[in-house]
């Protein structure tokens, strides 16, 4: 059982503040890796997830990318940290939380791309000018910030 699940046993659906990380993985052609998620179904987003006790934001990013894509991430570069009232989320099961998200980018990765069937429907690299319409809004913001700061 993970940290968030343990907290939920204590507080139910009440709002929490949860820390997580997403990673913009860029290939040699400048395309970004997106994950088509099972929840919310069919929506595309960046690989990433929530922090467990004792992890750094960098460790979260590396662990989540490995779990969700099969890729091993090397060096990462901070894009920004996103937080505040605009990052309130009500999950399908009624859980409420305010996310604090550290976003990184990396073009330093190895391994073979592999889709985790528990969380993902598909993985695909997209041109920055041709992203899918059905994306997690905050992940679109992260990609836009990446483009402004590092492209």
Q: Overview of this structure, please?
A:
By secondary structure, this protein is of the alpha+beta class. It has one domain (3-150): Nucleoside Triphosphate Pyrophosphohydrolase. The chain is 24% helix and 34% strand. The chain is built from three helices and ten strands; from the N terminus they run H-E-E-E-E-H-E-E-E-E-E-E-H. It has helices at residues 3-11, 57-69, 137-150; strands at residues 16-25, 32-37, 44-45, 48-50, 72-73, 77-82, 88-90, 96-106, 109-110, 120-126. The strands form three sheets. Strands 1, 4, 6, 7 and 8 form a five-stranded mixed beta sheet that branches. Strands 3-2-10 form a three-stranded antiparallel beta sheet, with no helix packed on it. It has a two-stranded antiparallel ribbon with strand order 5-9. Strand 7 (88-90) and strand 8 form a beta hairpin. The longest helix is centred in the last third of the chain and has 14 residues, at 137-150. The model has no long low-confidence stretch (mean pLDDT 96).
């Amino acid at each position: 059982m993970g940290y968030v699940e343990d907290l939920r046993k204590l507080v139910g659906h009440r709002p929490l503040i949860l820390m997580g990380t997403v990673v913009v993985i860029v290939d040699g052609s400048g395309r970004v890796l997106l994950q088509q998620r099972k929840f919310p179904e069919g929506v595309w987003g960046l690989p990433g997830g929530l922090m467990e006790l004792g992890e750094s934001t960098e460790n979260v990013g590396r662990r989540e990318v490995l779990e969700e894509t099969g890729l091993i991430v090397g060096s990462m570069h901070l894009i920004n940290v996103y937080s505040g009232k605009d990052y309130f989320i009500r999950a399908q099961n009624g859980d409420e939380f305010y996310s604090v998200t550290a976003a990184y980018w990396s073009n330093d990765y190895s391994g073979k791309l592999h889709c985790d069937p528990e969380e993902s429907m598909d993985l695909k690299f997209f041109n920055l000018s041709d992203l899918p319409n059905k994306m997690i809004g905050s992940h679109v913001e992260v990609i836009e910030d990446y483009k402004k700061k590092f492209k």
